[in-house]
Design goal:
With about 350 residues, the chain is α+β, with helices and mostly antiparallel strands. The protein has three domains: about 120 residues, 2-Layer Sandwich (Nucleotidyltransferase, domain 5), CATH 3.30.420; about 100 residues, ATPase, nucleotide binding domain (Nucleotidyltransferase, domain 5), CATH 3.30.420.40; about 70 residues, Actin, Chain A, domain 4 (Alpha-Beta Complex), CATH 3.90.640.10. About 40% of the residues lie in helices and about 25% in strands. The protein has twelve helices and 18 strands. The protein has a five-stranded mixed β-sheet with strand order 3-2-1-9-10, sandwiched between helices. Strands 13-12-11-17-18 form a five-stranded mixed β-sheet, with helices on both faces. Helix 3 packs across helix 4 and helix 11 packs across helix 12. The longest helix is centred in the last third of the chain and has 25 residues. About 45% of the residues are buried. The model has no long low-confidence stretch (mean pLDDT about 90).
């Protein structure tokens, strides 16, 4: 009885602690936080580093800070790379997500990439506990994405979800509330940005930052040729030869070339997963198709390329960027689902 009352009164939260973005869903309120996973800290001097900004405010400082301030992305490849900074980030986001009385700590469900080590899983859980959680549940990202996409995960049929985040791409075949086969590769949105930076550096001897690369990816990035004319984009950076600022113009075709290698790795992971899928479930996937989720799925014409390479129907989940956190939220709302797919 008391446990049920606690659950009713507490501000339960679902967290998609991503490499690129952190999203938080709150009970009865939906998504309340959707900000970059970036923390700006003051370094140097005595004592611990002081947190100056978290989220979008901190991201705006990337590449623009003096020596005493460092903008840190504490998540790398979907797991915690800096425990203390991640904890500070979570505390800030959780505090901003809470409403009303805070006498009762929240239950929190938090997603992790499939196949992470027990040490990595423990780090995520401890980070949430230190940030103020009463109970912490863990759910694997592909399962959360499938629930968020509205797939019938509890039925005896094969469903394939491809979640392309910032640090990892998770490919999973799900049936009867469990993951039958999953493959995780540490190639996703961040690697797309790195490929663009390298391409422009090698071809034009121009150095650009992470934010510029991300803007290029969002604006003219593509995995398959556009039907219309080439799209152009003006790029500003530092000339590595002259050392001065320089402006160049690049085309969508060039960016497709730049992204070809990391995209090939994603498609290879999908093909491997299809090869490892039991025949009966593979037959279901022929009918049901492949569902794409995650921010990386928004890359123009990626669904067209995957369809061409696999010969299967491919579609985007509704609002791919928030798919995982919405799946976590749905899980938190249903005790039966929570028992089925999440662990303490």
């Amino acid at each position: 009885m008391f446990n049920g009352l606690f659950n009713w009164m507490s501000n339960d939260l679902a967290i998609d602690l991503g490499t690129a973005n952190c999203l938080i869903w709150a009970k009865d309120r939906g998504i309340v936080i959707n900000e970059p996973s970036v923390v700006a800290v003051h370094v140097g001097g005595r004592g611990p580093s002081k947190v100056l900004a978290v989220g979008q405010e901190a991201k705006d400082m990337l590449g623009r800070t003096p020596g005493s301030i460092k903008a840190i992305r504490p998540m790398k490849d979907g797991v915690i790379a800096d425990f203390e900074v991640t904890q500070a980030m979570l505390k800030s986001f959780i505090s901003r997500s809470m409403t009303g009385a805070r006498l009762i700590k929240p239950r929190i469900i938090i997603c992790i990439p499939y196949g992470v080590t027990e040490v990595e899983k423990k780090a995520v859980k401890e980070s949430a506990e230190q940030a103020g959680a009463r109970e912490v549940y863990i759910i694997e990202e592909p399962m959360a994405a499938a629930i968020g996409a509205g797939l019938p995960i509890t039925e005896p049929s094969g469903n394939m979800i491809v979640d392309i985040g910032g640090g990892t791409t998770e490919v999973a075949v799900i049936s009867l509330g469990g993951i039958v086969f999953s493959k995780s590769v540490r190639v996703a949105g961040d690697k797309f940005d790195e490929a663009i930076i390298k391409y422009i550096k090698d071809k034009y001897s121009l150095l650009i930052g992470e934010r510029t690369a991300e803007d290029i990816k969002i604006t003219i990035g593509n995995a398959y040729p556009f039907d219309e004319e080439l799209k152009n984009y003006e790029v500003k950076g530092r000339d590595l030869i002259a050392g001065a600022p320089k402006v160049i113009e690049i085309t969508s075709d060039e960016i497709r070339d730049a992204l070809s290698d990391p995209i090939s790795e994603v498609i290879e992971a999908i093909k491997t997963s299809l090869e490892k899928t039991p025949p009966e479930l593979a037959a279901d996937i022929v009918d049901n198709g492949i569902i794409l989720a995650g921010g990386g799925a928004l890359l123009s014409n990626l669904d067209v390329l995957i369809k061409e390479k696999t010969g299967l129907p491919v579609s985007l989940a509704e609002d791919p960027l928030t798919c995982v956190v919405r799946g976590c939220g749905k899980t938190l709302e249903s005790n039966a689902l929570l028992k089925l797919v999440a662990t303490l």
